[in-house]
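At this stage, I needed to go through a protein sequence along with its fold in token form, as given directly below:
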Amino acid sequence: MIEVGSKIRFDYGAMHCEEFGTVTKVKNGIVTINGDIGFVEEINVSCIKMPGETSVNGSPIGVFVI
């Protein structure tokens, strides 16, 4: 369950560092995340994966709840 205060990890793949953030708002299926380095991102709740979840082809890239 994704709720305000949930910690989020952004994994962009090889050659890119991971980024982290905290959910600050959940409204109408859109999650607002404030990044630890100052960015603000809005993401559809269905695009956020659970820990260990991969894409159909097994890729670990994506946005995850920690």
Summary: The chain has one domain: 7-65. The chain has a mean pLDDT of 93. Residues 7-65 form one domain. Strands lie at 7-11, 19-27, 30-35, 40-44, 48-49, 62-65.
